[in-house]
DNA sequence: TATGAATGAGGATTCATTCAT
DNA sequence: CATGAATGAATCCTCATTCAT
């Protein structure tokens, strides 16, 4: 494994554990047993490390989430999708603990983040549309858009929100699954009879996951 | 005005503007034209300033939000309530931009925050219950709880979320009102015919506010 | 009791407890429940407080130790004298924990200290001379002077020395009495048969004291 | 010469000159023409510098003073030993000017200091025993122990004591030699006829040294 | 590629002291 | 006499970053 990648990995790990502002470049170098000079040979500055982590995040996102065509959208696909979104967010959770501050310092990163958010929005919209046309949801356009926005907000805020809800909260996979359940809980009351069945099935799936992990 | 209060005010202002991690105690002192020594005469350390700001926040919260009795809950009261919650969050918005990090450093603050969150939860539940018993909502217990959780999450995350949704996003009152609208949008699809009317009225009110402020 | 005197007393107490460098003027004021301004009304600066404490010490010393005439010197007088010297040193023990540093900063104090030391020397010499002329000691002039010097050194260093001989050593009266015993132990091997008897008597007296205090 | 060692050396020099409490880490850095950051690259904090100086002292002590076997103890060896002890104390004299305060702050250092003191005690005891068995001294066990204690006290206190005996006293080598003479003066009245001769010889040696240095 | 010593501006904080009231 | 808010230079220390090797 290349040093550059090891740095990214170590930084990600340490940031997730202790928060980005509390991890210095020296911490990262020491953790890897390399010199600070070497770290700066591979990265111009700390910002660039964060940047690279985000790039990896965005890349992971893009390969997993080819914009879905409406016909492909099934309950199964949805499950896979939600699963993957939250897992990704978990993997890069340090990011969400400081998002406003990190983005303020780095306009370029802000731009990239917005693109990712846009992709998330597109996908959520596509799924909701597909649900509606499949007769699982019964909503007007405005309500559908509002629903999509809410889902995006919940997805994007979940980890940060949970971090603040308990002293010394560790974000585990169970917490992630509860996030998916929270989103399903938002969709369920809006579904048709057929839709409800599907959602309940998904919920059952995630309840299992939560219990297995607790 | 007492120096102690001026410090709290200046700190709040600067934190909101530039983010707490980017504002040093010297910045605050210089901004007020006082010496660093004087600042430390009034506060043992930076943490204590943040603490005091939070205490003020909690105090504001508590005097404005005496736990509502269910009979008092009307659409008008709700409007006043939501308005006030978001305004308060706006006033102390720096806090929300770094919540995980701020709380991690200060377990006492974490405790206080959870109490405030618990109060928020109680009030939201009281309102939703009242809505249901007033025939504005039609939901089972589990769904009602889920709804309340979603509303609390949206309320608690709105400012942080919005901060990340645009480059150099300034959180204006209009953004705040959109948060209220978002929450109403979550409630609306779940209301009865009578409930829908009330919600639409509230939405209309806030749409006006948004337009006035933009 | 006058504020000025209360300040001296409080400072002495705190200095003894925690060491002069670790006690700020604010500590002293807070301990007395007075304002720092008030403290500085009575004393130009911290140095002056130390100075005043020393003056009190020198005063105590002078009233207790009128240079002894040789004829007055008996074993009993000696006992009273040694007792008093060490008690005084105990009362002002903070001083001995930092003597070089305190004196370096304050030439006037250095001067006063030397005068006190000179008085100590005179008295020790007087006693030793008297012992010799009384047939208790058998020494040549040079040896007598050397003995007096040693005794002065031991007396002046005892508290500082003991402070360093155990972790977190508290200087108790027992430690003080051991100092007297140490000095008697220096004198004893040099005494005549008659002198030895006297010294052993004194030693017995102090051994009792030590045991009572332990 | 390594920067780390240069820092230790400069600190030692400045501490000796002006007293440890009066020398800041910035002083040391400036004195060496290096940045404060560099100093803190080599030492975690000021305490660690003091610690390192003491370690060097303890090391010097240990290599020079292998516990002496009784047969090796001759007047010549004693001379070398005393010489070295006082020289070492002179080299690290800042330490003795603040011993109580320095040890109070640093329990680990206190522990090391006590070990060094214990070594000193062992060596002094060994020498005195050897003197007695060689017929140079005539003392009972209790008196021998008492003598050893006195010698240890004088040795350990000499520099601190001398520092306080004159305004702005500079501790020169002559002062050191006088310390040795003081100790010899304590031993001399207790010696046998043969012993006295040896001691007088040593005294003569040191009187020469003092005169040469004054 | 990698080292690790070095930088230096800047951080939080302290404390003897002053001064208007 | 007394208050207590205010000063400001100084302290210890951090950390992102550089650079000669």
UniProtKB/TrEMBL annotation, chains A, B, C, D:
Transmembrane segments: none annotated. Residues 1-61 form the HTH tetR-type domain. PROSITE patterns: HTH_TETR_2 (PS50977). Keywords: DNA-binding. Residues 24-43 bind DNA. It comes from the Bacteria. GO terms for molecular function: DNA binding. PANTHER family: ACREF/ENVCD OPERON REPRESSOR-RELATED, TRANSCRIPTIONAL REGULATORY PROTEIN. This is TetR/AcrR family transcriptional regulator. The lineage of its organism: Bacteria, Pseudomonadati, Pseudomonadota, Gammaproteobacteria, Vibrionales.
């Amino acid at each position: 494994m290349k040093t550059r990648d090891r740095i990214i990995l170590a930084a990600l790990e340490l940031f997730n554990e202790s928060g980005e502002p509390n991890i210095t470049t020296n911490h990262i170098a020491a953790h890897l047993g390399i010199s600070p000079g070497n770290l700066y040979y591979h990265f111009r500055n700390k910002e660039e490390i964060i940047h690279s982590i985000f790039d990896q995040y965005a890349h992971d996102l893009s390969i997993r989430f080819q914009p879905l065509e409406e016909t492909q959208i099934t309950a199964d696909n949805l499950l896979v999708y939600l699963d993957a979104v939250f897992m990704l967010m978990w993997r890069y959770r340090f990011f969400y603990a400081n998002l406003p501050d990190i983005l303020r310092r780095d306009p370029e990163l802000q731009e990239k983040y917005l693109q990712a958010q846009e992709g998330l929005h597109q996908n959520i919209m596509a799924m909701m549309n597909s649900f509606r046309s499949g007769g699982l949801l019964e909503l007007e356009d405005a309500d559908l858009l509002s629903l999509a926005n809410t889902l995006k907000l919940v997805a994007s805020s979940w980890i940060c929100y949970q971090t603040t809800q308990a002293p010394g909260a560790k974000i585990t996979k169970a917490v992630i699954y509860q996030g998916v359940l929270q989103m399903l809980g938002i969709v369920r009351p809006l579904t048709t009879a057929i839709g409800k069945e599907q959602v309940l099935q998904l919920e059952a799936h995630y309840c299992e996951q939560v219990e297995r992990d607790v």
